[in-house]
Amino acid sequence: MVKRTTTAPATQAAQPGPSGSEIGENAAQVLRRFRLVFNAVKTHFQQVEKKAGVGGAQLWALSIVRDRPDIGVNDLAKAMDIHQSTASNLVKTLIARELVAGAKNGTDRRTVQLRVLPAGTAVLRRAPGPLTGVLPQALASLDAATLKRLDADLAQLITALGADERAANLPLGQ
Q1: What is the pLDDT of residues 85-131, one digit of tens each?
Q2: Per-residue pLDDT tens for 71-94?
Q3: DSSP 3-state assignment of 28?
Q4: 17 phi and psi, to 5 degrees?
Q5: How many whole angstroms separate alpha carbon 174 and alpha carbon 130?
Q6: Residue spans of alpha helices (H) in the chain
Q7: Where would a tag sit more exposed on the chain, N or C end, judged by fewer CB atoms within 10 A?
């Protein structure tokens, strides 16, 4: 008689994933919750596009420029937590659509100061709220402990996905 010893994995996450077409009830429940989140965000962006005529990221940028006249592209990028080149592309589109004006005023003639034009103000009046988007607003409403836990759990999911972390600086509403 051969005696075998087995050790249980430290966590359930250490076990290999299911094979075939089954993912398990716990994973299915979480997947349904992600679908709810993604669909809420998608629906909001569709409403923004329909009512305001701009994308969600453009609307958020436009609202920041309105609230912070003479803001520069770098500060806009920081305010939206996006890459500077992404903010620059948003600004180019807003200027081309004559929603925002950029001028090189002030002491540093290398930087452009942005201001909302009357057409941009009209877009903001038509737009459904929240202007930052439903996901940033919902996250801002959560307490610090919940956000910390969510951040740690999502970090594990991102690792499991093997996701390109550079995508973290791209707004969802683009």
Answers
A1: 999 999 999 999 999 999 887 666 678 899 999 999 999 999 998 99
A2: 999 999 999 999 999 999 999 999
A3: helix
A4: -70, 165
A5: 16
A6: 25-52, 56-67, 73-80, 84-96, 118-126, 134-140, 144-161
A7: N
